[in-house]
Amino acid sequence: MTSTDVIVVGAGLAGLVAACEVLEAGKHVTVLEQEPASSFGGQAWWSFGGIFLVDSPEQRRMRVRDSLDLARQDWLGSAGFDRPEDDWGRRWAEAYLQFAAGEKRAWLNSLGVRFFPVVGWAERGGYTANGHGNSVPRFHITWGTGPGVLEPFVARFRRGVAEGRARVLHRYRVDELVTTGDGSGRASADRVVGARGSVLAASAVGRGEGSSREVVGSFEIAAGAVIVASGGIGGNHELVRQQWPRRLGAAPETMLSGVPAHVDGRMLGITAAAGARLVNNDRMWHYTEGIENFDPVWARHGIRILPGPSSLWLDATGRRLPVPLFPGFDTLGTLEHILSTGYDHSWFVLTQSIIEKEFALSGSEQNPDLTGRDLKLLAQRVRPGAPAPVEAFKAKGADFVVASTLPELLHGMARITTAPLDPARVTREIVARDREVDNVFTKDAQLTAVRGARHYLGDKLIRVAKPHRLLDPAAGPLIAVKLHVLTRKSLGGIQTDLQGRTLSASGSPVPGLYAAGEASGFGGGGMHGYRALEGTFLGGCLFSGRAAGRAAAGAV
Q1: In this protein, which residues make up the domain named FAD-dependent oxidoreductase 2 FAD-binding (predicted)?
Q2: What angle do CA 548, 546, 367 make, to 5 degrees?
Q3: β-strand 478-490 against 284-292: which pairing, if any?
């Protein structure tokens, strides 16, 4: 049996950050990862690279006035902490806000991470000042997207490998955490002293592709501490449905996957068997703007549209969604409403003018200009036409309907839905909305929100189209997009203290066991509460991975 100072389970962002902290402390670290080397970096590699910062230089340059107090107001209004088990999540939220308003940007900057100068405005809310949503833009896009966030930690880990103090064992699937105790059988008395599991057959699949589960051997590795950074459950639809929150209604019959199938949540049960407490399993973050990938990498592969606020949002029957469920305003509020209709899809209706300015696609691979740090390609975003990946989906995607007239559009929508779409209702919604555009005065709250968004320089420049009639031929053609529910993040998980130590049911730390990233609800078993402000998932992996890595290194 081999040994190491610290085992990290999972080679995603949180795991790599934790491993780097162990290396910085002068210790040895072994990363165990069930997937092949092609998937090194985990889900962060696929991400858009959004980072939540408070009162940053980028915000100030865009004339955005932010503060820790305003961010705290927004976070608590969104989180809605209301359970006894939320105590640690609330503490993590406060610590993370201090980090986001303090050293976070300087720390990342020291590692070479840079940000796109225009700050995005995600999850705008639309309720009262104390309700859900970001009062100001805080979504900082990393120059290099997700791979750019990973880059300094991958480089540091590889230096550790060269130094002989780090190793990553791919195709090593943990099946059990090894514990030793005082013989009483009390979980709180047990110390985690390593991991054992199965060695899986070598696999040559590409990043994100399904790999075999053929077992060719076994392993056991001893360690002074184990950090679980294995991610969430979004690729395991069976588990998602088992834990689906009743407050959102019945789980959809069909869902797309925003993450690969290996994001299966299996380590959560294994960690619980070692004495850790799981909390808030029914808190999830799934998107409603999913579209089928015409070139899928994994099963049921979906891509999320990152919409500006102008598209008309209709349910499956053609009824307009209620205020303030506009594109980009309230993810889970929209999900709850859509599911209440009895259908699991909805529609955007828009124009070419809107798609050119307002549509972006989530994911590093869908943004080659930002991911590749290509200034020439980036310049095309301000020229006529939608970004090339968006145009590709418009031309090839099964969920897109493009038409020169409204009757033609309605016919195309009816062709790709089994729901009782009412053409007359859709027509009434569009015509009534268009009448409101003819005046600067309006009772249409969405148009008011669009005009308000354009007061923000970033939105006016590259994100929000000038209000116009959807049936204006000069803005055409007309476009309809069928939208699906897309699984993504777990907001609950392994409960941890502020050092990343896992906590037992009694509230005491499980000796030798730590957790970070999505597996820990990004800290504390759920630092987001019920809702997220976006840009906080990568940041949560950074913050919790750093805390767990430092604590584990200091304990061995």
Answers
A1: 5-538
A2: 130
A3: antiparallel
Burial of 87 (0-12, 13-18, 19+ CB in 10 A): middle
pLDDT tens digits, one per residue of 187-215: 445 899 999 999 999 999 999 999 999 99
Q: Model confidence at 186, in pLDDT bands (50, 70, 90)?
A: very low
Question: Token pair of 145, please?
Answer: 């997207």
Six token digits for residue 345: 């899809």
- Pairwise CA distance, residues 534 & 512, whole Å: 32
SS (H, E, C) 253-287: CCCEECCCCCCCCHHHHHHHHCCCCEECCCCEEEE
Q: Where are the beta strands (DSSP E) in 137-283?
A: 139-141, 166-170, 172-180, 191-200, 215-228, 256-257, 278-279
Alpha-helical regions (H) of 350-387: 352-358, 368-371, 375-378
The reported pLDDT for the residue numbered 185 is 43
> Distance between CA 315 and CA 335 in Å, rounded?
11
With vertex at residue 553, the alpha carbon angle to CA 551 and CA 556, rounded to the nearest 5 degrees, is: 110
Angle, helices 445-453/423-437, rounded to nearest 10 degrees: 50
Inter-residue contact 199 to 487 (CB < 8 Å): no
* Cα dist from 245 to 85, 87, 98, 248, whole Å: 17, 20, 30, 6
Q: Where are the beta strands (DSSP E) in 364-452?
A: 400-403
| pLDDT, tens digit, 9 for 90 and up, residues 424-454 | 999 999 999 999 998 889 999 999 999 999 9
What is the model's pTM?
0.96
Stretch (H or E) spanning 98: helix 87-101
Cα separation, 58 vs 35, whole angstroms: 37
Cα separation, 400 vs 348, whole angstroms: 10
Q: How, if at all, do strands 360-361 and 302-306 pair?
A: antiparallel
DSSP 473: G
3-state DSSP assignment of residue 542:
helix
Specify the amino acid at residue 304: R
Give the tokens for residue 44: 């962060």
- Residue 176 pairs in a beta bridge with 196
Residues 6+ apart with CB under 8 A from 412: 401, 402, 403, 480
Token pair recorded at residue 322:
């209620």
- Asked whether 261 and 216 are in contact (CB, 8 A), the reply is no
Q: Residue 536 is which amino acid?
A: T
The closest of 23, 37, 495 to 268, measured between CA atoms, is 495
